[in-house]
Specification:
Keywords: Signal. This protein has a single domain, classed as Porin, CATH 2.40.160.40. The chain has 3 helices and 18 strands. The chain has helices at 29-39, 48-56, 355-360, and strands at 3-10, 71-97, 105-135, 138-151, 156-161, 164-170, 181-190, 213-224, 227-238, 241-251, 254-262, 265-276, 281-292, 296-299, 304-306, 310-324, 327-336, 344-353. A hairpin with a 4-residue loop joins strand 12 and strand 13 (281-292).
Length: 361
C-alpha cells in the first residue's frame, strides 16, 4: 500500500550573505576628505579647477592608487551591529513507502521560510590591508581580517581569522579636473575563516563564507562642488565546496548531513554622495543593493535542494568626525528595505595608515 507523508525539517538558510566592502563602493574616509577639501578652498589657490586637480591627484585609498614602487599599509577597525527578524527556512521533504517492510524514500519538494526568529549580532573586525604600486595606475594588495562575533540570541561568541583576499586595481584613464575617476577591480578570496558549512549550528559562529570566490567590479567618483558623487558595481562568483560533513537536521531519526554547497552568482550596486558640513564633520548618504542567486545543496543520502535567492537593499547614513589632521572616526546607521535585509545596521570605523611600518619597507 502506498502511503505518503510530508515532513517539515528546519534548515538554516545556506544562501551566501552579500559582503559590502570598500571595493564594492563603500564611502571611504578619503571620499569624505575630498568633499572637505572642496569646501576648504584657500584664497591663495589660483583657481578652483587647479584645487580640484590637486585633490584628485592625491594618493587615496579607493579612487587613486599607490605610486609605483610604494607601499600603502592601512589598518581599519570596524564595529557593526545587526538587528533582524530573519526567516527560518524549511526543507520540505516527502516520504514515500511502497510497502510496510520497504525502506522509505525521500524527495525534496520545496524549500521555503516557515518561521520568523529574532537575530542580533555584534561584530568587531580589525582588518590589515597592504597595497603595492606596480605602476602609477596599477596596484596589487591583500587584506587580512580578524573577526570577533557575539550572537545575543544563541549566546555564542567566536573569535577567529576571516577570509583572506587579494586584489588588483587598475585606473585605465588619467583623471582630469572636472572629470570622473574610474577604477577597475579584481579580487580573489580564500576561505581561511571558519566556514558556516562546517560549524556546529547554534553552538558556533562563522567568520568566513566557506568557499573560494572571485569578483570583478568598477568604481567611479566625481567631484561636483560641493559634494563627491560615487558609485560602484561588481559581480561575485563563489565556487563549489564539497567534502563537507555538517548535520543540518534529522530525518526519520537519522541525521541529514550536508556534503556539498554550490553558491550562485552575486551582484552588488552602490550609489551615494559625500559632503562636508564643516572642516571637522562630514556626511555620506549611500544606497546599497545586492542580489544573490540560489545556492544548491547536496546531502549524504542523495537528497538535493536549492535555497531561496536573496535581494538585499540598505540605506546608509555615515557621519565622519575629524579626530586629528590625518584621522577620521566614521559612525554609520543603516536601514534595510527588502525582506532579506537586516532591520537595522550600526557601524563604527576608525581607519588609519601605518606610516612608520610603511617607511621601513
Amino acid at each position: 500500500m502506498l502511503a505518503s507523508m510530508t515532513l517539515l525539517g528546519l534548515l538554516a538558510a545556506a544562501a551566501p550573505s552579500v559582503l559590502w566592502a570598500q571595493a564594492a563602493g563603500e564611502a571611504s574616509p578619503e571620499e569624505q576628505e575630498r568633499a572637505r577639501e572642496v569646501l576648504r578652498q584657500k584664497e591663495s589657490d589660483p583657481s578652483k579647477e587647479e584645487n580640484l586637480e590637486q585633490i584628485l591627484n592625491k594618493t587615496q585609498q579607493d579612487y587613486s592608487l599607490v605610486k609605483q614602487g610604494w607601499w600603502d599599509i592601512f589598518l581599519n577597525i570596524d564595529y557593526t551591529y545587526f538587528g533582524d527578524a530573519r526567516s527560518q527556512d524549511a526543507l520540505i521533504i516527502e516520504q514515500t513507502r511502497n510497502g510496510r517492510n520497504q525502506q522509505p524514500t525521500f524527495q525534496v519538494v520545496d524549500f521555503r521560510p516557515i518561521d520568523v526568529v529574532q537575530d542580533a549580532q555584534h561584530t568587531i573586525t580589525p582588518r590589515l590591508s597592504v597595497d603595492y604600486g606596480v605602476l602609477d595606475n596599477l596596484s596589487l594588495g591583500f587584506a587580512l581580517p580578524v573577526v570577533g562575533k557575539y550572537d545575543n540570541v544563541d549566546d555564542v561568541t567566536e573569535f577567529d581569522i576571516g577570509d583572506v583576499s587579494m586584489r588588483l586595481r587598475w585606473q585605465p584613464f588619467a583623471a582630469l579636473p572636472g572629470q570622473a575617476r574610474w577604477t577597475l577591480l579584481g579580487e580573489v578570496t580564500a576561505p581561511t575563516g571558519s566556514s558556516p558549512f562546517e560549524t556546529e549550528l547554534g553552538e558556533e559562529l562563522a567568520t568566513g563564507d566557506g568557499y573560494y570566490s572571485a569578483s570583478l567590479g568598477v568604481n567611479v567618483s566625481k567631484v561636483i562642488d560641493p559634494v563627491v558623487a560615487f558609485g560602484s558595481f561588481s559581480l561575485i562568483q563563489g565556487f563549489k565546496e564539497d567534502g563537507l560533513d555538517q548535520v543540518r537536521q534529522t530525518l526519520d531519526g537519522q541525521p541529514l548531513i550536508l556534503t556539498e554547497v554550490d553558491p550562485g552568482l552575486q551582484a552588488q550596486l552602490g550609489l551615494g554622495v559625500a559632503f562636508a558640513l564643516s572642516y571637522d564633520v562630514s556626511m555620506t548618504f549611500q544606497y546599497q543593493l545586492g542580489y544573490a542567486q540560489e545556492t544548491d545543496l547536496k546531502f549524504a543520502n542523495g537528497l538535493s535542494a536549492s535555497s531561496l535567492d536573496q535581494t538585499i537593499g540598505v540605506f546608509n547614513l555615515t557621519t565622519g568626525f575629524r579626530l586629528s589632521p590625518d584621522r577620521v572616526l566614521n559612525v554609520s546607521v543603516g536601514f534595510g528595505n527588502t525582506e532579506a535585509s537586516p532591520d537595522v545596521f550600526l557601524g563604527v570605523s576608525l581607519p588609519f595608515t601605518v606610516e612608520k611600518l610603511s617607511q621601513l619597507i
